[in-house]
Every structure is written in C-alpha cells, then in structure tokens.
Amino acid sequence: xxxxxxxxxxxxxxxxxxxxxxxxxxxxxxxxxxxxxxxxxxxxxxxxxxxxxxxxxxxxxxxxxxxxxxxxxxxxxxxxxxxxxxxxxxxxxxxxxxxxxxxxxxxxxxxxxxxxxxxxxxxxxxxxxxxxxxxxxxxxxxxxxxxxxxxxxxxxxxxxxxxxxxxxxxxxxxxxxxxxxxxxxxxxxxxxxxxxxxxxxxxxxxxxxxxxxxxxxxxxxxxxxxxxxxxxxxxxxxxxxxxxxxxxxxxxxxxxxxxxxxxxxxxxxxxxxxxxxxxxxxxxx
Length: 285
Known about the structure:
By secondary structure, this protein is α+β, with helices and mostly antiparallel strands. The protein has helices at about 5-10, 15-20, 40-50, 60-70, 115-125, 130-140, 145-155, 160-170, 185-195, 240-255, 265-270, 270-280; strands at about 25-30, 30-35, 60, 80, 90-95, 105-110, 110-115, 175, 180, 200-210, 215-220, 225-230, 255-260. Helix 4 (about 60-70) crosses helix 5 and helix 5 (about 115-125) runs antiparallel to helix 6 (about 130-140).
C-alpha cells in the first residue's frame, strides 16, 4: 500500500512509523509498504512499482505483457511508464513519455497498466520478434486482441509501430466487413463461400460445451456446423494437437458437425473444395 492509502485508511504518520518499527509494515520503496511480510507474488511487486512512481504511472512493456498473460514468467525489472521524471529505484525501470492518453491505459487485477494494444507496441519496440509473436498469439487466444485498438496505436507513430505492423500483417490479423479474420487462409475461405453463394458463417466465435467454451474458425449456428481451417502453422506443438482434438471431441459430443479444411484444399483446390462444402453448407437466399 502507498503512504497516501494508509493515511486514507485512518492511520496517522506516527502510527505508520510505529507499525514499521514493530514489523507489521515493511517498506518496499519510499512511501510504499507491504503488510505483514515482504514475500510477495509478482503482482504485489508490480503494484508496488507503480505506486512508487506516483500518480499517473502504469505498468508497461514486458511486465505489462506478463500481467495480461501474454508472456510467461515475471521480469526481474518492472518497467513503469510515467509522465514525469522519476528516480530509478531497485527493480524498477521508469519509461518517461510526454503524454499517456486514457485509451492506452487500463486496470487489470487492480493494477494500473498499459492497454493490450499499447503493451504489444511496447513489446515490439524491444526488438524481440519471438516475444512479440507469442504475445500477439496469446492476446488472440485470450480474446484480448482488438484490431481497432491496434490500428489506433499503429497510427500514433510510437517506437515499435513498424515491427508491430509487420507482425500483424504476417499473422494476417485484420478486419474485413466488420469481421475479425485471423489469417490469409480465413480470408480466402470467406471469399470462396461468397463465390459459391453460401450463407456466411460467424467467424472466430465461442461455442459452449458442457466442458468449456471453444473458439472455432467458422460456425453456422442454425445448422450446428463448424469448419476448422488448418493452415501451415496448425499443430506446431503436441499440446496444440491435443487441444484441437479435445475441441473437436467436445463439439461433436454436444451435437455439432465438425469439418476440417486444409491450406491446400482452400488455396490450391478451390473448385474441389466448393464441391465438398456444397454437401455441408446452406446456400444464401
């Protein structure tokens, strides 16, 4: 807790000093204290770092990505974006900016933090392409990715926008007709459906099963039909392979018909693919 928070709780300055002397409060940084002990989880230290940097400070960069669940672990140093000069303290790296617009900030688990879109841009600025790729994929999987917000950040001209735009383009994350499409394969599949005169599906939506909700590539809810698209990046790991099979099993047990189409079928054999899907999908009126 910060000194001002303790005062707001009714403690006087002398009461705070007394509790520090008694070992009931432990000073982490100047005017920032832990109650009872100094053994804190990463979120405790992240909150302390933000409090230590004063009003308007937010957790940012890799620490923010870890807080959002976009990257694993916890960095040894907490990056904190500030709009005023702040003395560097042990375990804190202040990142001063001229201004920080409200759209670039959020609160997650009670901690002031950069928004997901701004966090991705800051990760991009670090130059770690692998970390950026992982963070974007996790943001999509956790349903935290908002292409409109990413486009807003890309228009800001901040450091990292060039790398972020390249990564977004490579992963095929963009909007088409107000629909989020995650890959070139999904865009081609949608064009193929229009060409064949089919009812267009809901894309990248959640389907509830008795076990959990699953995100599917394409859904025709009235017909309870799901189409999953397997690009070149499908099943990169054993866990992804298992997850895809669990998803198909859960959906089929819930009454959905699940069909898979590969990159080759959609991209290189569109006519043959149209013949196949005519047996499955409804035509538009």
